[in-house]
Amino acid sequence: MPGQIREPGRTVTSRVLAVLDAFGPDDTGLSLAELCRRTGLAPSTAHRLAAELVEWGGLERGDDQRYRIGLRLFEIGMRAPGRRGLMEAARPFLEDLYEVTHENVHLAVRDGHHAIYLDKITGVRAVGAPARAGDRLPLHATGMGKALLAFARPELFAEIVREGLPRYTPHTLTSPELLRRALARTRERGFAVAAQEYSLGTVSVAAPVLSADRRHALAAISVVVHSSRANIDRLGPAVRTAAMGAARHFSRPAEDGPGTRGG
Amino acid sequence: MPGQIREPGRTVTSRVLAVLDAFGPDDTGLSLAELCRRTGLAPSTAHRLAAELVEWGGLERGDDQRYRIGLRLFEIGMRAPGRRGLMEAARPFLEDLYEVTHENVHLAVRDGHHAIYLDKITGVRAVGAPARAGDRLPLHATGMGKALLAFARPELFAEIVREGLPRYTPHTLTSPELLRRALARTRERGFAVAAQEYSLGTVSVAAPVLSADRRHALAAISVVVHSSRANIDRLGPAVRTAAMGAARHFSRPAEDGPGTRGG
Protein backbone atom coordinates (compact mmCIF):
# COMPACT_ATOMS: atom_id res chain seq x y z
CA MET A 1 0.00 0.00 0.00
CA PRO A 2 2.43 2.69 -1.10
CA GLY A 3 -0.30 5.36 -1.03
CA GLN A 4 -0.85 4.68 2.63
CA ILE A 5 2.79 5.17 3.46
CA ARG A 6 2.88 8.46 1.59
CA GLU A 7 -0.38 9.62 3.22
CA PRO A 8 -0.28 8.12 6.70
CA GLY A 9 -3.28 10.09 8.03
CA ARG A 10 -5.80 8.61 5.60
CA THR A 11 -7.26 5.12 5.65
CA VAL A 12 -7.91 3.31 2.40
CA THR A 13 -11.63 3.57 3.10
CA SER A 14 -11.45 7.33 3.45
CA ARG A 15 -9.65 7.52 0.12
CA VAL A 16 -12.29 5.39 -1.62
CA LEU A 17 -14.95 7.69 -0.20
CA ALA A 18 -12.96 10.77 -1.24
CA VAL A 19 -13.10 9.50 -4.83
CA LEU A 20 -16.91 9.29 -4.58
CA ASP A 21 -17.10 12.71 -2.90
CA ALA A 22 -15.17 14.23 -5.79
CA PHE A 23 -18.25 14.08 -8.02
CA GLY A 24 -20.37 17.21 -7.61
CA PRO A 25 -24.05 17.56 -8.52
CA ASP A 26 -23.30 19.16 -11.87
CA ASP A 27 -20.31 17.08 -12.96
CA THR A 28 -20.88 15.07 -16.07
CA GLY A 29 -17.45 13.41 -15.95
CA LEU A 30 -14.04 13.83 -14.32
CA SER A 31 -10.64 13.17 -15.87
CA LEU A 32 -8.01 11.36 -13.82
CA ALA A 33 -6.20 14.69 -13.35
CA GLU A 34 -9.38 16.33 -12.00
CA LEU A 35 -9.95 13.37 -9.70
CA CYS A 36 -6.42 13.75 -8.30
CA ARG A 37 -6.84 17.49 -7.84
CA ARG A 38 -10.15 17.10 -5.99
CA THR A 39 -9.10 14.20 -3.78
CA GLY A 40 -5.47 15.11 -3.17
CA LEU A 41 -4.56 11.55 -4.12
CA ALA A 42 -1.47 10.57 -6.09
CA PRO A 43 -2.28 9.62 -9.71
CA SER A 44 -1.34 5.97 -9.19
CA THR A 45 -3.57 5.71 -6.11
CA ALA A 46 -6.50 7.53 -7.73
CA HIS A 47 -6.18 5.39 -10.84
CA ARG A 48 -6.12 2.14 -8.86
CA LEU A 49 -9.08 3.06 -6.65
CA ALA A 50 -11.10 4.33 -9.62
CA ALA A 51 -10.35 1.11 -11.52
CA GLU A 52 -11.68 -0.95 -8.61
CA LEU A 53 -14.79 1.21 -8.49
CA VAL A 54 -15.27 0.85 -12.26
CA GLU A 55 -14.97 -2.91 -12.01
CA TRP A 56 -17.62 -2.91 -9.28
CA GLY A 57 -19.93 -0.62 -11.29
CA GLY A 58 -19.89 2.34 -8.91
CA LEU A 59 -18.01 4.40 -11.48
CA GLU A 60 -18.17 4.23 -15.25
CA ARG A 61 -15.40 5.25 -17.62
CA GLY A 62 -16.54 6.56 -20.98
CA ASP A 63 -14.85 6.50 -24.37
CA ASP A 64 -13.58 9.98 -23.47
CA GLN A 65 -11.68 8.36 -20.54
CA ARG A 66 -13.64 10.45 -18.04
CA TYR A 67 -15.10 8.90 -14.90
CA ARG A 68 -18.78 9.16 -14.02
CA ILE A 69 -20.95 7.88 -11.18
CA GLY A 70 -22.26 4.48 -12.26
CA LEU A 71 -25.64 2.80 -12.05
CA ARG A 72 -24.49 0.47 -9.28
CA LEU A 73 -24.29 3.45 -6.92
CA PHE A 74 -27.69 4.65 -8.10
CA GLU A 75 -29.07 1.18 -7.37
CA ILE A 76 -27.56 1.09 -3.87
CA GLY A 77 -28.49 4.70 -3.12
CA MET A 78 -32.12 3.91 -3.89
CA ARG A 79 -31.98 1.38 -1.04
CA ALA A 80 -31.71 4.13 1.57
CA PRO A 81 -34.83 3.27 3.57
CA GLY A 82 -35.24 6.86 4.76
CA ARG A 83 -35.87 7.68 1.15
CA ARG A 84 -37.76 4.68 -0.10
CA GLY A 85 -40.51 4.38 2.48
CA LEU A 86 -41.26 8.06 2.50
CA MET A 87 -41.17 8.31 -1.24
CA GLU A 88 -43.54 5.41 -1.71
CA ALA A 89 -45.93 6.83 0.84
CA ALA A 90 -45.75 10.33 -0.60
CA ARG A 91 -45.72 9.65 -4.34
CA PRO A 92 -49.48 9.29 -4.89
CA PHE A 93 -50.07 12.55 -3.01
CA LEU A 94 -47.34 14.30 -4.98
CA GLU A 95 -49.03 13.09 -8.16
CA ASP A 96 -52.39 14.43 -7.02
CA LEU A 97 -50.83 17.75 -6.07
CA TYR A 98 -49.21 17.93 -9.49
CA GLU A 99 -52.48 17.14 -11.24
CA VAL A 100 -54.25 19.89 -9.30
CA THR A 101 -51.56 22.57 -9.74
CA HIS A 102 -49.48 21.52 -12.77
CA GLU A 103 -46.55 23.16 -10.98
CA ASN A 104 -43.24 21.69 -9.76
CA VAL A 105 -43.86 19.46 -6.77
CA HIS A 106 -41.03 18.32 -4.48
CA LEU A 107 -40.42 15.96 -1.58
CA ALA A 108 -37.47 16.51 0.77
CA VAL A 109 -36.12 15.35 4.11
CA ARG A 110 -33.72 17.02 6.47
CA ASP A 111 -30.15 15.73 6.49
CA GLY A 112 -28.29 17.59 9.23
CA HIS A 113 -28.40 21.29 8.44
CA HIS A 114 -29.75 20.89 4.91
CA ALA A 115 -32.87 19.76 3.13
CA ILE A 116 -32.19 17.05 0.58
CA TYR A 117 -34.59 16.47 -2.29
CA LEU A 118 -35.91 12.92 -2.52
CA ASP A 119 -38.29 13.35 -5.40
CA LYS A 120 -39.62 15.87 -7.85
CA ILE A 121 -42.59 15.89 -10.13
CA THR A 122 -42.76 18.16 -13.09
CA GLY A 123 -44.56 18.11 -16.39
CA VAL A 124 -44.30 19.67 -19.81
CA ARG A 125 -46.57 22.48 -18.61
CA ALA A 126 -44.57 23.35 -15.45
CA VAL A 127 -41.79 25.95 -15.57
CA GLY A 128 -38.30 24.54 -16.08
CA ALA A 129 -36.82 23.77 -12.68
CA PRO A 130 -33.14 22.88 -12.40
CA ALA A 131 -33.65 21.55 -8.85
CA ARG A 132 -33.28 17.77 -8.90
CA ALA A 133 -33.65 14.79 -6.62
CA GLY A 134 -30.42 14.46 -4.62
CA ASP A 135 -29.84 18.22 -4.44
CA ARG A 136 -29.18 19.93 -1.10
CA LEU A 137 -30.89 23.14 -0.01
CA PRO A 138 -30.34 25.56 2.87
CA LEU A 139 -32.95 25.31 5.63
CA HIS A 140 -33.45 29.03 6.28
CA ALA A 141 -33.97 30.20 2.68
CA THR A 142 -36.50 27.76 1.23
CA GLY A 143 -40.09 26.87 1.93
CA MET A 144 -39.04 23.24 2.21
CA GLY A 145 -36.29 24.10 4.68
CA LYS A 146 -38.51 26.27 6.84
CA ALA A 147 -41.21 23.59 7.01
CA LEU A 148 -38.56 21.09 8.18
CA LEU A 149 -36.91 23.52 10.60
CA ALA A 150 -40.21 24.62 12.17
CA PHE A 151 -40.90 21.03 13.18
CA ALA A 152 -37.44 19.94 14.34
CA ARG A 153 -35.78 19.70 17.76
CA PRO A 154 -35.54 23.28 19.14
CA GLU A 155 -31.71 23.30 19.35
CA LEU A 156 -31.48 23.04 15.58
CA PHE A 157 -32.58 26.66 15.18
CA ALA A 158 -29.67 27.86 17.36
CA GLU A 159 -27.21 25.66 15.45
CA ILE A 160 -28.35 27.02 12.09
CA VAL A 161 -28.12 30.59 13.34
CA ARG A 162 -24.65 29.98 14.79
CA GLU A 163 -23.47 28.71 11.42
CA GLY A 164 -24.71 31.93 9.83
CA LEU A 165 -27.66 32.60 7.52
CA PRO A 166 -26.20 33.15 4.03
CA ARG A 167 -27.94 35.63 1.76
CA TYR A 168 -29.08 34.28 -1.63
CA THR A 169 -31.32 37.16 -2.72
CA PRO A 170 -32.30 40.53 -1.24
CA HIS A 171 -35.32 38.72 0.26
CA THR A 172 -33.43 35.99 2.18
CA LEU A 173 -34.15 36.06 5.91
CA THR A 174 -30.67 36.65 7.29
CA SER A 175 -31.86 37.96 10.65
CA PRO A 176 -32.36 35.29 13.33
CA GLU A 177 -35.33 37.20 14.73
CA LEU A 178 -37.15 37.34 11.37
CA LEU A 179 -36.42 33.67 10.81
CA ARG A 180 -37.72 32.82 14.28
CA ARG A 181 -40.97 34.66 13.52
CA ALA A 182 -41.32 32.94 10.15
CA LEU A 183 -40.97 29.56 11.85
CA ALA A 184 -43.59 30.46 14.49
CA ARG A 185 -45.93 31.51 11.67
CA THR A 186 -45.19 28.20 9.90
CA ARG A 187 -46.19 26.24 13.00
CA GLU A 188 -49.33 28.36 13.33
CA ARG A 189 -50.72 27.85 9.86
CA GLY A 190 -49.16 24.47 9.08
CA PHE A 191 -47.20 25.53 6.01
CA ALA A 192 -44.18 27.68 5.14
CA VAL A 193 -43.73 30.25 2.40
CA ALA A 194 -40.46 31.43 0.89
CA ALA A 195 -40.99 34.35 -1.46
CA GLN A 196 -37.95 34.86 -3.69
CA GLU A 197 -35.69 34.06 -0.73
CA TYR A 198 -33.53 31.50 -2.51
CA SER A 199 -33.95 32.52 -6.14
CA LEU A 200 -35.59 35.56 -7.63
CA GLY A 201 -38.85 35.08 -9.44
CA THR A 202 -40.04 31.97 -7.57
CA VAL A 203 -42.15 31.34 -4.53
CA SER A 204 -42.24 28.04 -2.69
CA VAL A 205 -45.02 26.86 -0.42
CA ALA A 206 -44.19 23.82 1.75
CA ALA A 207 -45.86 21.73 4.41
CA PRO A 208 -44.33 19.20 6.82
CA VAL A 209 -45.10 15.48 6.67
CA LEU A 210 -45.52 15.06 10.42
CA SER A 211 -44.75 12.09 12.67
CA ALA A 212 -47.68 10.29 14.31
CA ASP A 213 -47.32 12.47 17.45
CA ARG A 214 -47.36 15.54 15.12
CA ARG A 215 -44.23 16.95 16.77
CA HIS A 216 -41.57 16.25 14.17
CA ALA A 217 -41.32 16.68 10.42
CA LEU A 218 -40.37 13.38 8.77
CA ALA A 219 -40.26 15.15 5.41
CA ALA A 220 -41.77 18.13 3.65
CA ILE A 221 -43.68 18.62 0.41
CA SER A 222 -43.47 21.82 -1.59
CA VAL A 223 -44.83 23.46 -4.70
CA VAL A 224 -42.58 25.93 -6.47
CA VAL A 225 -44.25 28.50 -8.73
CA HIS A 226 -43.36 31.68 -10.55
CA SER A 227 -43.92 34.59 -8.20
CA SER A 228 -46.32 36.07 -10.74
CA ARG A 229 -48.75 33.21 -10.20
CA ALA A 230 -48.20 32.56 -6.51
CA ASN A 231 -51.62 32.26 -4.95
CA ILE A 232 -50.78 31.36 -1.36
CA ASP A 233 -54.41 31.08 -0.29
CA ARG A 234 -54.91 28.39 -2.88
CA LEU A 235 -51.53 26.62 -2.67
CA GLY A 236 -51.16 26.48 1.12
CA PRO A 237 -54.18 24.25 1.79
CA ALA A 238 -53.39 22.04 -1.25
CA VAL A 239 -49.81 21.41 -0.11
CA ARG A 240 -50.94 20.86 3.46
CA THR A 241 -53.54 18.34 2.37
CA ALA A 242 -50.97 16.40 0.32
CA ALA A 243 -48.53 16.39 3.27
CA MET A 244 -51.23 15.16 5.66
CA GLY A 245 -52.18 12.38 3.23
CA ALA A 246 -48.55 11.29 2.93
CA ALA A 247 -48.16 11.27 6.72
CA ARG A 248 -51.24 9.11 7.16
CA HIS A 249 -50.11 6.76 4.40
CA PHE A 250 -46.59 6.52 5.83
CA SER A 251 -47.71 5.52 9.32
CA ARG A 252 -49.78 2.70 7.80
CA PRO A 253 -47.97 -0.36 6.44
CA ALA A 254 -48.00 -0.49 2.62
CA GLU A 255 -50.31 -3.01 1.00
CA ASP A 256 -48.90 -5.10 -1.79
CA GLY A 257 -51.18 -5.11 -4.79
CA PRO A 258 -51.77 -8.49 -6.45
CA GLY A 259 -48.63 -9.36 -8.41
CA THR A 260 -47.79 -6.17 -10.24
CA ARG A 261 -44.04 -6.24 -9.94
CA GLY A 262 -43.59 -6.73 -13.70
CA GLY A 263 -42.06 -4.04 -15.91
CA MET B 1 -4.64 -3.89 8.93
CA PRO B 2 -5.22 -7.23 10.61
CA GLY B 3 -8.18 -7.98 8.30
CA GLN B 4 -5.90 -7.74 5.34
CA ILE B 5 -3.42 -10.23 6.74
CA ARG B 6 -6.17 -12.71 7.50
CA GLU B 7 -7.77 -12.23 4.06
CA PRO B 8 -4.85 -11.64 1.73
CA GLY B 9 -6.89 -12.00 -1.47
CA ARG B 10 -9.16 -9.03 -0.81
CA THR B 11 -8.23 -5.38 -1.06
CA VAL B 12 -9.60 -2.90 1.46
CA THR B 13 -11.61 -1.31 -1.34
CA SER B 14 -13.26 -4.60 -2.23
CA ARG B 15 -14.22 -5.07 1.42
CA VAL B 16 -15.75 -1.58 1.63
CA LEU B 17 -17.75 -2.38 -1.49
CA ALA B 18 -18.75 -5.77 -0.08
CA VAL B 19 -20.28 -3.96 2.88
CA LEU B 20 -22.37 -1.84 0.49
CA ASP B 21 -23.29 -4.89 -1.58
CA ALA B 22 -24.59 -6.62 1.52
CA PHE B 23 -27.72 -4.46 1.48
CA GLY B 24 -30.42 -6.00 -0.69
CA PRO B 25 -33.39 -4.21 -2.22
CA ASP B 26 -35.74 -5.28 0.54
CA ASP B 27 -33.47 -4.92 3.56
CA THR B 28 -34.60 -2.36 6.04
CA GLY B 29 -31.59 -2.81 8.30
CA LEU B 30 -28.73 -5.25 8.96
CA SER B 31 -27.21 -6.18 12.30
CA LEU B 32 -23.44 -6.47 12.58
CA ALA B 33 -23.79 -10.27 12.64
CA GLU B 34 -25.80 -10.21 9.39
CA LEU B 35 -23.26 -7.89 7.83
CA CYS B 36 -20.46 -10.33 8.74
CA ARG B 37 -22.39 -13.30 7.39
CA ARG B 38 -23.15 -11.60 4.10
CA THR B 39 -19.68 -10.15 3.52
CA GLY B 40 -17.56 -12.93 4.99
CA LEU B 41 -15.68 -10.28 6.96
CA ALA B 42 -14.44 -10.71 10.52
CA PRO B 43 -16.58 -8.79 13.07
CA SER B 44 -13.75 -6.36 13.91
CA THR B 45 -13.19 -5.56 10.24
CA ALA B 46 -16.89 -5.23 9.44
CA HIS B 47 -17.41 -3.01 12.48
CA ARG B 48 -14.51 -0.73 11.57
CA LEU B 49 -15.52 -0.38 7.92
CA ALA B 50 -19.17 0.19 8.83
CA ALA B 51 -18.13 2.84 11.37
CA GLU B 52 -16.16 4.68 8.69
CA LEU B 53 -19.14 4.50 6.35
CA VAL B 54 -21.46 5.77 9.10
CA GLU B 55 -19.16 8.69 9.79
CA TRP B 56 -19.19 9.57 6.09
CA GLY B 57 -22.98 9.25 5.87
CA GLY B 58 -23.12 6.32 3.46
CA LEU B 59 -24.56 4.13 6.18
CA GLU B 60 -26.77 5.07 9.10
CA ARG B 61 -27.03 3.22 12.38
CA GLY B 62 -30.38 3.38 14.12
CA ASP B 63 -31.30 3.19 17.77
CA ASP B 64 -31.82 -0.53 17.14
CA GLN B 65 -28.08 -0.77 16.28
CA ARG B 66 -28.92 -1.94 12.75
CA TYR B 67 -27.14 -0.49 9.73
CA ARG B 68 -29.01 1.05 6.83
CA ILE B 69 -28.00 2.70 3.57
CA GLY B 70 -27.66 6.43 4.28
CA LEU B 71 -28.73 9.54 2.44
CA ARG B 72 -25.17 10.35 1.38
CA LEU B 73 -25.24 7.30 -0.92
CA PHE B 74 -28.64 8.32 -2.23
CA GLU B 75 -27.26 11.78 -2.94
CA ILE B 76 -24.21 10.41 -4.79
CA GLY B 77 -26.22 7.76 -6.62
CA MET B 78 -28.50 10.45 -8.00
CA ARG B 79 -25.41 11.93 -9.68
CA ALA B 80 -25.15 9.01 -12.10
CA PRO B 81 -25.45 10.98 -15.32
CA GLY B 82 -26.86 8.01 -17.21
CA ARG B 83 -29.82 8.31 -14.92
CA ARG B 84 -30.17 12.02 -14.46
CA GLY B 85 -30.20 13.24 -18.05
CA LEU B 86 -32.58 10.53 -19.21
CA MET B 87 -34.85 10.98 -16.26
CA GLU B 88 -35.08 14.71 -16.72
CA ALA B 89 -35.81 14.30 -20.41
CA ALA B 90 -38.35 11.56 -19.85
CA ARG B 91 -40.18 12.82 -16.76
CA PRO B 92 -42.67 15.18 -18.47
CA PHE B 93 -43.61 12.42 -20.92
CA LEU B 94 -43.98 9.89 -18.12
CA GLU B 95 -46.29 12.37 -16.39
CA ASP B 96 -48.39 12.79 -19.51
CA LEU B 97 -48.59 9.03 -19.97
CA TYR B 98 -49.70 8.69 -16.38
CA GLU B 99 -52.34 11.38 -16.77
CA VAL B 100 -53.71 9.64 -19.86
CA THR B 101 -53.71 6.09 -18.45
CA HIS B 102 -53.64 6.47 -14.64
CA GLU B 103 -51.67 3.22 -14.63
CA ASN B 104 -48.14 2.50 -13.36
CA VAL B 105 -45.59 4.13 -15.65
CA HIS B 106 -41.88 3.19 -15.54
CA LEU B 107 -38.58 4.29 -17.02
CA ALA B 108 -35.64 1.85 -17.21
CA VAL B 109 -32.24 1.50 -18.82
CA ARG B 110 -30.23 -1.59 -19.59
CA ASP B 111 -27.33 -2.36 -17.27
CA GLY B 112 -25.54 -5.38 -18.66
CA HIS B 113 -27.97 -8.28 -18.81
CA HIS B 114 -30.70 -6.56 -16.77
CA ALA B 115 -33.09 -3.68 -16.98
CA ILE B 116 -32.78 -1.29 -14.09
CA TYR B 117 -35.65 0.98 -13.12
CA LEU B 118 -34.77 4.65 -13.04
CA ASP B 119 -38.15 6.07 -12.26
CA LYS B 120 -41.72 5.12 -11.62
CA ILE B 121 -44.94 7.08 -11.58
CA THR B 122 -47.95 5.82 -9.78
CA GLY B 123 -50.99 7.40 -8.25
CA VAL B 124 -53.66 6.62 -5.73
CA ARG B 125 -55.81 5.21 -8.53
CA ALA B 126 -53.16 2.85 -10.01
CA VAL B 127 -52.86 -0.75 -8.82
CA GLY B 128 -50.27 -1.31 -6.09
CA ALA B 129 -46.95 -2.06 -7.74
CA PRO B 130 -44.06 -3.26 -5.61
CA ALA B 131 -41.55 -2.52 -8.43
CA ARG B 132 -39.42 0.44 -7.44
CA ALA B 133 -36.74 2.70 -8.86
CA GLY B 134 -33.40 0.92 -8.45
CA ASP B 135 -34.88 -2.55 -8.98
CA ARG B 136 -33.39 -4.95 -11.54
CA LEU B 137 -35.48 -6.93 -14.01
CA PRO B 138 -34.68 -9.79 -16.41
CA LEU B 139 -34.56 -8.73 -20.07
CA HIS B 140 -36.40 -11.70 -21.57
CA ALA B 141 -39.45 -11.73 -19.29
CA THR B 142 -40.61 -8.11 -19.15
CA GLY B 143 -41.96 -5.63 -21.68
CA MET B 144 -39.26 -3.20 -20.56
CA GLY B 145 -36.54 -5.80 -21.06
CA LYS B 146 -37.77 -6.87 -24.49
CA ALA B 147 -37.95 -3.26 -25.67
CA LEU B 148 -34.32 -2.77 -24.56
CA LEU B 149 -33.14 -6.10 -25.95
CA ALA B 150 -34.82 -5.61 -29.34
CA PHE B 151 -32.78 -2.44 -29.86
CA ALA B 152 -29.39 -3.55 -28.50
CA ARG B 153 -26.24 -4.87 -30.18
CA PRO B 154 -27.11 -8.22 -31.80
CA GLU B 155 -24.63 -10.26 -29.72
CA LEU B 156 -26.58 -9.46 -26.57
CA PHE B 157 -29.37 -11.83 -27.58
CA ALA B 158 -26.90 -14.74 -27.82
CA GLU B 159 -25.38 -13.83 -24.44
CA ILE B 160 -28.78 -13.75 -22.74
CA VAL B 161 -29.75 -17.08 -24.28
CA ARG B 162 -26.42 -18.64 -23.26
CA GLU B 163 -27.04 -17.57 -19.66
CA GLY B 164 -30.40 -19.31 -19.75
CA LEU B 165 -33.93 -17.92 -19.82
CA PRO B 166 -35.40 -18.47 -16.34
CA ARG B 167 -39.08 -19.18 -16.06
CA TYR B 168 -41.10 -16.86 -13.80
CA THR B 169 -44.62 -17.89 -14.83
CA PRO B 170 -46.10 -20.48 -17.21
CA HIS B 171 -46.12 -17.67 -19.83
CA THR B 172 -42.41 -16.73 -19.69
CA LEU B 173 -40.69 -17.12 -23.06
CA THR B 174 -38.02 -19.66 -22.18
CA SER B 175 -37.47 -20.77 -25.78
CA PRO B 176 -34.79 -18.77 -27.66
CA GLU B 177 -36.78 -19.10 -30.88
CA LEU B 178 -39.97 -17.65 -29.34
CA LEU B 179 -37.96 -14.84 -27.77
CA ARG B 180 -36.26 -14.11 -31.13
CA ARG B 181 -39.67 -13.81 -32.79
CA ALA B 182 -41.00 -11.58 -30.01
CA LEU B 183 -38.02 -9.25 -30.48
CA ALA B 184 -38.56 -9.14 -34.26
CA ARG B 185 -42.21 -8.26 -33.64
CA THR B 186 -41.10 -5.57 -31.18
CA ARG B 187 -38.84 -3.99 -33.82
CA GLU B 188 -41.69 -4.18 -36.36
CA ARG B 189 -44.34 -2.39 -34.35
CA GLY B 190 -42.09 -0.24 -32.17
CA PHE B 191 -43.24 -1.57 -28.82
CA ALA B 192 -43.00 -4.78 -26.77
CA VAL B 193 -45.67 -6.63 -24.85
CA ALA B 194 -45.17 -9.03 -21.94
CA ALA B 195 -48.40 -10.77 -20.99
CA GLN B 196 -48.11 -12.35 -17.54
CA GLU B 197 -44.54 -13.40 -18.38
CA TYR B 198 -42.94 -12.08 -15.20
CA SER B 199 -45.87 -12.01 -12.80
CA LEU B 200 -49.33 -13.45 -13.18
CA GLY B 201 -52.15 -10.98 -13.60
CA THR B 202 -50.19 -8.14 -15.15
CA VAL B 203 -49.36 -7.09 -18.68
CA SER B 204 -46.62 -4.60 -19.53
CA VAL B 205 -46.37 -2.61 -22.74
CA ALA B 206 -43.02 -0.92 -23.36
CA ALA B 207 -41.38 1.20 -26.04
CA PRO B 208 -37.71 2.06 -26.52
CA VAL B 209 -36.35 5.59 -26.17
CA LEU B 210 -34.18 5.45 -29.27
CA SER B 211 -30.82 7.10 -30.01
CA ALA B 212 -30.74 9.82 -32.67
CA ASP B 213 -29.79 7.24 -35.34
CA ARG B 214 -32.75 5.15 -34.14
CA ARG B 215 -30.58 2.03 -33.87
CA HIS B 216 -30.13 1.70 -30.10
CA ALA B 217 -32.41 1.92 -27.10
CA LEU B 218 -31.10 4.48 -24.62
CA ALA B 219 -33.93 3.57 -22.25
CA ALA B 220 -37.45 2.21 -22.34
CA ILE B 221 -40.79 3.40 -21.02
CA SER B 222 -43.50 0.98 -19.93
CA VAL B 223 -47.03 0.92 -18.61
CA VAL B 224 -47.98 -1.99 -16.37
CA VAL B 225 -51.66 -2.84 -16.08
CA HIS B 226 -53.84 -5.60 -14.72
CA SER B 227 -54.30 -8.18 -17.45
CA SER B 228 -58.06 -7.70 -17.18
CA ARG B 229 -57.78 -4.16 -18.47
CA ALA B 230 -54.90 -4.57 -20.93
CA ASN B 231 -55.94 -2.82 -24.11
CA ILE B 232 -52.82 -3.19 -26.25
CA ASP B 233 -54.28 -1.26 -29.20
CA ARG B 234 -54.72 1.74 -26.95
CA LEU B 235 -51.60 1.38 -24.75
CA GLY B 236 -49.07 0.60 -27.50
CA PRO B 237 -49.38 3.91 -29.36
CA ALA B 238 -49.56 5.91 -26.09
CA VAL B 239 -46.33 4.35 -24.75
CA ARG B 240 -44.62 4.75 -28.12
CA THR B 241 -45.58 8.40 -28.30
CA ALA B 242 -44.19 9.04 -24.81
CA ALA B 243 -40.93 7.25 -25.69
CA MET B 244 -40.55 9.23 -28.91
CA GLY B 245 -41.14 12.47 -27.03
CA ALA B 246 -38.51 11.55 -24.44
CA ALA B 247 -36.02 10.66 -27.19
CA ARG B 248 -36.53 13.98 -28.93
CA HIS B 249 -36.24 15.86 -25.64
CA PHE B 250 -33.10 13.97 -24.65
CA SER B 251 -31.21 14.73 -27.85
CA ARG B 252 -31.90 18.44 -27.32
CA PRO B 253 -29.97 20.27 -24.59
CA ALA B 254 -32.18 21.11 -21.60
CA GLU B 255 -33.25 24.73 -21.23
CA ASP B 256 -32.95 26.26 -17.81
CA GLY B 257 -36.16 27.93 -16.82
CA PRO B 258 -35.85 31.36 -15.24
CA GLY B 259 -34.57 30.84 -11.71
CA THR B 260 -36.76 28.08 -10.37
CA ARG B 261 -34.22 26.18 -8.38
CA GLY B 262 -35.88 27.07 -5.06
CA GLY B 263 -37.57 24.47 -2.91
Sequence of secondary-structure elements of chain A: HHHHEEHHEEEHHHEEEH
- Percent helix of chain A: 40-55%
Main β-sheet, spatial strand arrangement of chain A: 5-4-3-8-7-6
CATH top-level class of the largest domain in chain A: Alpha Beta
Overall strand count of chain A: 8
Name the overall outline of chain A.
globular
Indicate the proportion of strand residues of chain A.
15-25%
In angstroms, what is the radius of gyration of chain A? 21 Å
CATH structural fold name of the largest domain in chain A: Beta-Lactamase
Q: What's the architecture of the largest domain in chain A, going by CATH?
A: 2-Layer Sandwich
Molecular structure report:
Chains A, B: Residues 10-71 form the HTH iclR-type domain. Chains A, B: One of its GO terms (molecular function) is DNA binding. Chains A, B: This is DNA-binding IclR family transcriptional regulator. Chains A, B: It holds the Pfam family IclR_C. Two copies of one chain form a homodimer. The first copy, chain A, has 263 residues and is an alpha+beta fold. Chain A has two domains: 2-76, Winged helix-like DNA-binding domain superfamily/Winged helix DNA-binding domain (Arc Repressor Mutant, subunit A), CATH 1.10.10.10; 81-251, GAF domain (Beta-Lactamase, 2-Layer Sandwich). Chain A is built from ten helices and eight strands. In chain A, a hairpin with a 5-residue loop joins strand 1 and strand 2. In chain A, helix 7 crosses helix 9. Chain A starts with a helix and ends in a 12-residue tail after the last helix.
